[in-house]
Amino acid sequence: MWKMMGCVLVLSGAAGIGWSMCESMENRIRQLDILRFLFSVVGSEVEYHNAVLPEALRRAQQQLGDILGERLMKVYERNVLGERLEDIWDEEMEIWLKVSALSEKEKQLVRRFPECIGFTDGKMQLKQIRYMETEILK
Question: I need a labelling partner for 99 at 20 to 30 A (CA). Which of 68, 76, 107, 121 fits?
C-alpha cells in the first residue's frame, strides 16, 4: 500500500515538474517572438521612416501592448523629458526582465540594445538592429 502511494506521488511530482518546465519554455518562446518583433519594427522604423530610436520604440510600443509595451512607452516618455536613453532603458527593461523567462544570455542582449545602436549614422543603427534580431534567434 505504501509503495503504491509512493509510486503515485513520484509520478505526480514528475508530471508536475514536466508541466512546469513546458510552461516555462512556452513563455520563453513567446517572449523571444515578441523581442524579434520589437527589433523588426524598430528596424523598419529606422530604415523606412528615418525615425530616431525613442520614436521608433514608441511606435513599436503601439503594436506590442503588453508589459514590454508599457516599459517602452516609459522609455519614450522619460527620454522626451531629457533623461539619457541608456539609463532609462536599463531601469525600465530590468522591470520586464525580472518577470521574463529568458535565459541570462538573452537578458544580456536586451540590456545591451541601446549601446549597440548608439550610432548617429542611420545605416549603422539599422545594421546593429538587424544583428540584434538575428542574435535573439540563436
Answer: 76
Distance from C-alpha of 130 to C-alpha of 90, rounded to nearest angstrom? 21
Please state whether 83 falls in left (phi above 0), alpha (psi between -120 and 50) or beta: beta
For residue 41, give the C-alpha cell: 519594427
Count other Cβ atoms within 10 Å, centred on residue 135.
Answer: 14
Q: For residue 78, how many C-alpha atoms fall within 13 Å in the half-sphere facing its CB? A: 16
**Cβ-count burial 61-75 (b if 16+ within 10 Å, e if not):** beebeeebbebbbbb
Give 119's pLDDT tier (boundaries 50, 70, 90).
low
- Write down the H helix ranges in the chain: 2-49, 53-64, 67-80, 85-98, 104-116, 122-136
2-44: pLDDT as tens digits: 888 887 778 777 777 878 777 777 888 888 888 888 888 888 8
